[in-house]
Amino acid sequence: MDIPILYEDNHLLVVEKPVNIPVQADQTGDPDLLTMLKEDIKIRYQKPGNVYLGLVHRLDRPVGGVMVFAKTSKAASRLSDAIRRRAFDKKYVAVVRGTPKERQAKLEHHLWKDQKKNQVYVVPENDPRGKKAILDYKVLGEAKGMSLLEINLHTGRPHQIRVQFSNIGCPLYGDQKYGQAVNKPGQQIALWASELRFEHPTTKEWIKVKQAPPHTFPWSIWNDQPSY
Fold this sequence. Notes:
eleven-stranded mixed sheet; alpha+beta; globular; 228 residues
């Protein structure tokens, strides 16, 4: 599989994750991104033995877009620390059904994941199982009963964006898990990791990598969107 490399040096590898590819090996046994990238590094640099590549953040299997991997354990440790300190900016674009009541707002919920069902639920603030989930968004455009959103993620909870927008009555286009009533089987979920911004683990300069989603429906509705 041809995986676009967006940035690379001795410490980092930033790529465009293809949709419907698991980030790491799972029970399906399907080819996964981490294994493919290790194999690619081994071939390109003719490295003997095992290749180190640190996984510091994740994207859900159906979601594509910008991902960074660490090529050294030091880089992995420092990137993981930046994520914990929320000094690691993750932006997404999404297409949701309907339009949120506010064109620009912050969403805060408490989420609990049922591990057995792989399903995430919004729970009351005083539920000890819940973890706080925060994001802010703005509406970039509206068409065909849908809205294009830019999302800034402040916490990295499982299925966070999908659950939070479903909870306010605007499930993501194509999301069968949290938008069964309005989406059809086979539709591709319209969620894309569009930008990462973080401090380089060794040089300390700020790195920003952006990548637009594919020109397929429903993204193609907003191809002329200036800030897209």
